[in-house]
Here is the input.
Amino acid sequence: MFDTTSLAHLPKAAQYQALATQAHALMAGEHNLVANAANLSALVMSSLPALNWAGFYLFDGTELVLGPFQGKPACLRIALNRGVCGHAATTRQTQVVPDVHAFPGHIACDTASRSELVVPLLYQGKLLGVWDVDSPELNRFDAADQAGMEALCKIFLSSLLPESIRS
Ligand code: SME
Here is the structure.
């Protein structure tokens, strides 16, 4: 149906350019949140090097609840005052954490994770959830990853319709 390949051989800007094109193609005409979230997780995980987890936590009005993802089974619920995900959600700022062991309150879902990037997802000004990627490498994510992941999140958010969002 849709073939993904490793983009590891490309410079980061080109990796994210290719991913953005592929994400647009994957979501074209589809507005279902779970379907598009699941495919974005699979696309990123199968294309980018040195990731051990990529996926979503969705805000249920109280806390973050595990959504579509790729990687090892993860914590089901994260309170807004906990972890890198909770911090991204409450500050509404992308968090780039070069060393998760140095982040107070980091939640270790997969003990292999050493660095992490979390993008808050806002839909029409409201918190929808967060996009979370983890790496087994220290300092895996930089400003290019932040810009690239934020652009992918924008593509995901613009695929949604108000009725795509429950609650
Ligand atoms: N490390 C995250 C928890 C989610 S897992 O990494 C999948 C955090 O501290 O919020």
Observations:
- The beta strands are 53-59, 64-71, 77-78, 95-97, 115-123, 126-135.
